[in-house]
Amino acid sequence: MNWGKGWPRFATWKPARRRKSDFRRCKSTSPGTGSWVMTVAETHIPMAMVVGANHRSSSMSIRDRLFVEDDQVPGVLEKLRAAGIGEAMVLSTCDRVEIQAVHDDPEDAAKRIITIFAEHAELKAEDLDGQTYTLTGDEAVRQIFRVAASLDSLVVGEPQVLGQVKSCHRMAADAGMTGTGLEAILQAAYTASKRARNETKIGERPVSIAAASARLAQDLHGDLKKRSGLLIGTGEMGELVAGAMIEEGLGDLSVVHTTAARAEALARELNCHVGDFNDLGRLLDDADIVLTALGSRRHVVTSDMMQVAIHRRRRRPVFLVDTSLPGDIDPAIN
Which CATH class is domain 204-322? Predict the structure, then answer.
């Protein structure tokens, strides 16, 4: 494997599976000899690979179908193992679903992974055409590093993703799916991520935005312990702002999503309540703070909805924070 200048070298690299090399005979070029020598015509070397769908490559509806809940991860890992992919990790977050792996035939392995994705999402493999990406070799390693360092996030520098990567790494290790190659890449990615956070200002902006949002909410509502919040969607920035509100003492928070499982997963992380997306109108009536992080490319909270909610709230103010691009909140709302 060509790691490029600066990449760590792995002296103990052992392929998870070897294939027979194809040999051909060729005449020796040494003068005065008619001997034959064996040369390697083709070898299969384990190579890093990433197959996935993220906020740039796919629609939210496709990512919702591909999303792998924690209790589903062991089953997906077992399917990968049965497909001959013995060194892999399932990374499933609000903005991406990826299989990060090492394999000696990445082109063939990618086809098998797409099939597994399609089965999990209850789609046909062709439905994923143009919605996923496949990276191999150096490009795959760069992607693994970028994800761990939060350079691939919708909000660059958000701090949650590294913890998510490590959690998914542990699940893969528990399933016996991390070999020497993948382990070495991930450990190097963690080191690079730590350096990026310690030696640059990458993490300052998202944290400052979340903190500023919490301060503005306090300026409007005073003590947040007496206030209720509503988080619509599970995007990374929305989660970060919600976390800042909770740290400042927000009394109650509910999470809703068009896919209930996504809301339930985030509610467990934030230790808060789950709401019914179909009951959004009533939830808006009760919310003093509304955060949106759905990214559905349409206005989920419209001007008409907020006029009704404000009337029912007897003109009590609502603090709204839209963290999505494009926005979830109708800009006509004042």
Answer: alpha beta
